[in-house]
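Researcher: Go.
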Amino acid sequence: MRENSVETEYAVTATVAEYEAAVAALAAGSGPVAVDAERASGFRYSQRAYLIQMFRRDAGVFLFDPIALTDAVGPQLTALQQALVGEEWVLHAASQDLACLREVGLDPARIFDTELAARLLGLPRVGLGPLTESLLGIHLAKEHSAADWSTRPLPQAWLTYAALDVELLVDLRDEVEKLLVEQGKLEIAEQEFHWELVKEAKAPRAEPWRRLSGIHSIRGIRNLAVARELWLARDALARERDSSPGRLVPDAALTAVAKAMPASKRELAGLKEFTGRASRSELDRWWAAIEAGRTTEDLPVPRSNGDSIPPVRAWADRNPAADARYKRARERVQEYAQEHSFPVENVLTPELLRRVAWEPPQPVTTESVAAFLGDGGARPWQIEATAELIASAFVEADQAPREADDDAS
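Model: Structure:
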C-alpha cells in the first residue's frame, strides 16, 4: 500500500449485477487496461486465479472474484473479454499471469509488460515495488504477495494491496515507455511483448517426479522407483484435494523414506523424518506406494534422458571444438549485452547459444546462424544483434587450432 495514503475500501465483484456494471465501466474507460492476477501458489494444487484486478483511467479499479463469477456467468468471462478486445493490457511479469487469465477466457491481443521492459532497460531492480518507487516515487508494501488468495472472504488489507498493484500500473507503463524511447529500445520491447503472447507453453515434463528435491542424493534403482511412486501418490492426493503437494508431505520427507526403505508400515510410521500433515493420516497410501516401488518391473533409469547436449562443464573433454566455439561466442554476446545495457539472457537465451555452439549449421555463415536462431525462437532484434557476432566467433574458434599448429611448424 502507499505510504501516507488515505485508506480506500475496496469491494470484490462477485455477482452478475456487479460484473455487468464493472464491464460497462471498463468499456467506457480510456487508454490501456492494467491487469493482475492473484493465485494461491504454495497452498493449492491448481494455478488458477483467485482474484483478477483491473484498472482503467476514467473507470477505476475493479477486483473480480473469478471463482464466484465463473459459477454465476459460466467458465469464460466473455463479456469482460469482449469489452476490452483490441485494447492494450498492461501487466507486470505477464508470463506469470497469462495462463490463469486465459483459463477464464481473458486473452489480450496486445500487452505492455513493465517487468520485461525494465529488464530490457537494464534497470537494477525490476520488481513492481522497487520499480514503482524509483520511477513514480511511491512505495508499495508487498506484505501479502505470498498470501493464500483462495481465502474467502478476502481481508480488506489484502484487497487494498491487490488494488494498488494495478492502480499505479498505467502510470508506471508511461514512465517505462519514455525510457524505452530514450534508449531506442521501444521496438525491441514490442517484439518481446508479442513473443510473450504467441510463444507456445512448455510441454509437460515426461517424468515430473524427477523434480523431487534431493532426488540426486538417492542411490539405487529400487530406491529411485520408491521415490517415484511416492511422488506420484502425493501428486494424486494433492490434485484430489486441490492442495499444494508440499503442504501434504514435504519433498524432504519423501526423499528420506526412499533412502530408508522401511520394511513395514509400522517402521514407516516410526520414521521421524517422515513429516507432513498427511504423513500419518494417509499412511496406507504411502505404504502402497512403497510396495509398488519395491515390486515394479518398470524400473527408472538413473538419469532423465532430457536434453541430449551434455553440461557445458563437460564440453572441454567431450567436444573441445564446441567448447571453444561456445566460450568465444558467449564472450561476444556478453560484450554486446554490456555495451547496450541488456541482461545477457535477454540478448539470447543461454540454451539457444549452447545448442548452436554444440552443433552449428554448415557452412557457418551469418545467414545460416540467423536461420538456426530463428528456428530456435529468437526474435528479429536478437538475430540482428547476435547472428554475425556468433558466426564470426565460431569461425575464429575453428581456425584457432590450425593457426596454433601453423605457428608451431
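Model: The first strand starts at residue 12 and ends at 13.
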